[in-house]
Amino acid sequence: MIKVLLRDTNVNVNAVNAVGYNASAISEMNNIIASSSEFDNSNNQGAVMYSAAVLYQNVLLLATSFSSYPKWRHWIGCCISTPMVLVLVNGRPTAQFGVQKGLRQGDPLSPFLFNIVVEGLNCLLLKARRLNMIQGMSYGEEGVHITHLQFADDTILFLKPQMDYLLNTKWILRCFETASGLRINFHKTCLLKVGKNSVDTRSWARVFKCKRETLPITYLGFSLGGRLCAKIFWKNVVQWIEKRLVPWKKRFLSKGGRLVLVKSVISSIPSYFMSVFKIPSGVASTIESLQRNFFWGDGDAKRKLHAVDWASVCKSKRNGGLGIGRILDKNKGLLAKWVLRFGKETESLWKKVICAKYRISAYSLVWDWKALAAGSFFVKSVGSLFVEGTSSANIIRKGLKVIIGNGGRAQLWSDIEWNSIQLKRAFPRIFALARDKVGLVKDFGRWLNSKWVSEVQFRRPPFDWENNQWLSFLEELTNVKIRRAVSDDKVCSFNPKGSFSVSSFRRCLEEDQLEGGVLDDLNWHGFCPSKFEIFVWQLLRGRVMVAEVVQHFGIRIDAGIHCPFCNGSTESIDHLFLHCAWTRSFGARLWDVVWSTWEARNQKIFKDAPADLGYNIDLVRFRVAWWFKNHGIGLKMPLITITSNLKESCIDSFPTKLPKREVWSPSACGVLKFNVDGSARGSPAHAGIRGVLRDSIGSVLCIFSLSIGTQDSNTTELLAIHKAVCLCHSKEFIKGRKVEIVSDSTVVVNWVNAGDFGSVKHIDCIYDIREKMASLGSLTVRHNARSTNTLADCLTKFGSKSRGDFPFWTAD
Fold this sequence. Notes:
Strands 24-23-20-21-22-25 form a six-stranded mixed β-sheet, with helices on both faces. A five-stranded mixed β-sheet has the order 8-9-1-10-11, sandwiched between helices. Strands 2-5 form a two-stranded antiparallel sheet. A hairpin with a 2-residue loop joins strand 17 and strand 18. It has five domains: 2-224, no CATH class; 229-325 and 513-543, no CATH class; 328-400 and 496-509, no CATH class; 405-487, no CATH class; 671-809, Ribonuclease H-like superfamily/Ribonuclease H (Nucleotidyltransferase, domain 5, 2-Layer Sandwich). The chain has 35 helices and 25 strands. The protein is an alpha+beta fold. It starts with a helix and ends with a strand. Helix 5 (110-130) runs antiparallel to helix 6 (163-180), helix 32 (713-730) crosses helix 33 and helix 32 (713-730) packs parallel to helix 34 (763-776). The longest helix has 21 residues, at 110-130.
């Protein structure tokens, strides 16, 4: 049967319905289909399990369908037919012998072969649908058909409520079981109906020899058909986090260890769910409460003070926090990723279903949240990001931009925005007058003398009271630029590379900035243990639990609030670490003592240990030497030697040889070299660009200097390259000669030479450079070390302080 159905079929393991499809996309697709109550269909979920072995000939047949390379098929055959094993008898290995029943189930190759074989089931179901043996879900006029979804050994089937389709499906599964060697476990298969229909699932389940279920069900960890906004849906997530936060871990982990556990483990548990659905605020508060209590060591039996408010703790390190992140912000970032994917992807199954179901163009680049307002819970979750007045809406509208390329995907009225508003909503009267309301950008203009001229046809001329919108629309239309080399795309403008990341979106959501954030940058260098870095982080905020701070929380201290070392002044942070006589004598000998001072203070108060100054000085030396040795600097000497002579040991450990310095070298014969550089006295700050053009013998042909105002470093480097290209384009004697433009900025050189849009912020400048380079033909841009760009670098450093602009040519 497989031979018949695979005949004249060209399949690919990475096809849309293949086993390797993305898990989150499949889960979101299942939720959309299961929640579509307007379709009267039945749902049949089957679990595919391993049998004893996979038929050898079947694997080779499927491998032949997947690939036309004989060597690849030969490898697959050898992996199955030539395994050798040996047995230990009384501790001695026997001779190797061949395996007669193929690969064992635990073999590392088994999952890969399973993906190949189970792809045969995908081909069977697709061919059966084309032969009208089965019928699944159908969306839209374009006919987006879905009969099944596969992920590893989990398969979910969608059938119309007809007995013939059910019997054909069982026949297909039985044939696949016989041909492939994979056994279908019908005891783990369930049958259920979706929507309002009169199907008697009890009698159907007896025919299929499986159990019957009702919605909601669980598939790939998600609940399908239930109320996804209810707290009960997130109950398992909360329970998983509680299991990770058992009380004994708080006792045996320092604050540094707790921080690692909270960031790397606990925060990632709900990510799978939050990447598809909006988390209720009550559930987010519960998760953050568990995180907060675990980090500060709080519990039911013993209460602990929370020194810093949780909002400050969750901020990124660059903004004065510990980088944990708020749950709601992470949820918004994960959902915002779908907005960008909606604009970038055209062949994804999840996008086809959404566009077909809600009658949106499959090539649309913009998530029209108003048209999708009445969609599934996933669609509503993503649409919640666009609520007016929220920070997420402002970030998405300003940060996710449609870049017009050849105009072949973007719709003029829907995808192009004016002041972050679609043209059809920004100019409603002009949109009503337009003849074509769904056309692409390329359909509203033509090329004239290598320039794009926009043309829009209207039903009638505008009235006088419509002139304001008319003039504004024409002004916006002239700003639309067509670039033939690339297709339309959607990019992320708050990331220089144009790609989207959840962390960058979360940083944009952070409103408050830390005062004096430079201290935090100095704090997180990784030299000291994380618990000491967290202690310094608390110290910089004045939140170390000395007596004065504890008293501020309203807690009575029976032992008094005086300094335990001098018994003079009140124990405040300034007194304990700066003004106390014991600390001054301690710090006069070695300054890196804040942690040891705090440890000595706790030993004095809670264990009545003597404050031995000499012992603590030796302890500080030992700790610093230990940190230095564990930091990976490369110290080879014993720890006792480092401790006894810390300064000389640390200095001697650093390499004394300087790296080899590259110098400027002339270009090849007949080639001109243009060294350019840009410099900004800050980021951003007043900047200048300079460049030097020389021939193959080192003779200077041109020097230019230009002040460009306030710019950042990458912009200055790009403008320096742009100026050099413009100068080469303006001189006739350079045209036809090979020119190398050399810059010491790797990022900017990659922008210019990349095949995509490069930097979103500088897209117009980058494309102007590329067009001029294409017209010259023999001009290239490459990177070289700064030491080879000395003259241009020196001119730039001095030129950034001046305001003079000049190009000086020594040759014509």
